[in-house]
Amino acid sequence: MKILFLDQSGQIGGAELCLVDIARPFRDNCLICLFADGPFRKLLEEKKIPVRVLANRSIRVRKQSSLMQGIGSIGVFTPMVAKVAEIAWEYDLIYANTQKALVIGAIASLVARRPLVYHLHDILSAEHFSTANRRLAVTLANRFASLVIANSKATQTAFIEAGGRPELTEVVHNGFDPAIYHIQIQNSPQTKQHLGLERRFVVGHFSRLSPWKGQHILLEALTHCPDEVTAILVGDALFGEKQYVEQLHQKVVELGLSKRVQFFGFRGEVAPLMAVCDLIVHTSIAPEPFGRVIVEAMLCGRPVVAAAAGGALELIESGKTGWLVEPENIEELADAIAICYHNPMLAKNIAQQAQKQAIERFHLAAIEQKMTQLLRQVIDFH
Ligand code: UDP
207 C-alpha to center of ligand 1: Å? Predict the structure, then answer.
């Protein structure tokens, strides 16, 4: 199987990390084309996955932009479609990993007469996308895709509710190699000391800094927690949310949390830092499409509290494998942190249960097998 993967981003987000895992088994017979240069290209080179950057300038259509703004970028789209179609002749299948990749991949699949697979990592709802972009994604997927891989039931449902054809869809959760998360856990006490976090109850938040990821909710919740409770924010603004980053720093000062909050920026490996946490929280204020960090925290054997919406509902059974709290509810989040702070044995038991379940449900080997089978079927039926 020769696969041409397309991704619009030069940055390393959840969709891109998932793509690394999907493309790795095909690395002798695949190419990943990016529509923008950046750290993602370097990561793929490190992993020895063939990569080519098709444009140094990214295509300027944001998730919330209107169709007219989208049409404004047509000068970039047309040559890109031609380039992708030309490359696609050498491959059996085009695999679009993001929405802009779908737009270009759809037309290129028509020109090159290759089947198209669309990996849906987003919830196609008004909270995340403009009406025009939702319509565009659904229309193109319905018309051109042979398969839509939804990364959760939540993304599948939203796709169907937006008019997507149900029979095209298959839910495949992200896969993870448990060994990566297990080995790192050994470093925990030394790392905690090194970071000046000993004798602290460390609450970790691992996500790009963005208003909808809700880091501000955690800061507010901290003011209701005992002084020993300290937060580490791991991640950076990936898509121009600099203003939000400034607001977060300002809020830390305003709330008197300067000694209880640390910003770590983006980290290539999250497991060593997850290992120093007593609890990991997820605070998205809009439904999370999947929530890789939730599974990663579980694999690290750390208790997790997550906002009860979207994919998080499929990952956590509240009170059994973590805790779910109402999105944006500061008091509920603070209460859940307090439960873990005051009941370390309970938190440990729940984390162990979650770790066991996560290894069973999200093992990379099983996900790889399922993906290979699905892609093989698409090629055989074309
Ligand atoms: N992540 C990372 N370094 C950081 C912060 C986050 O590698 O400093 C990773 C995180 O471990 C997870 C991914 O970025 O694998 C984010 O995926 P998620 O599904 O949680 O959110 P998305 O970015 O897709 O909205």
Answer: 5
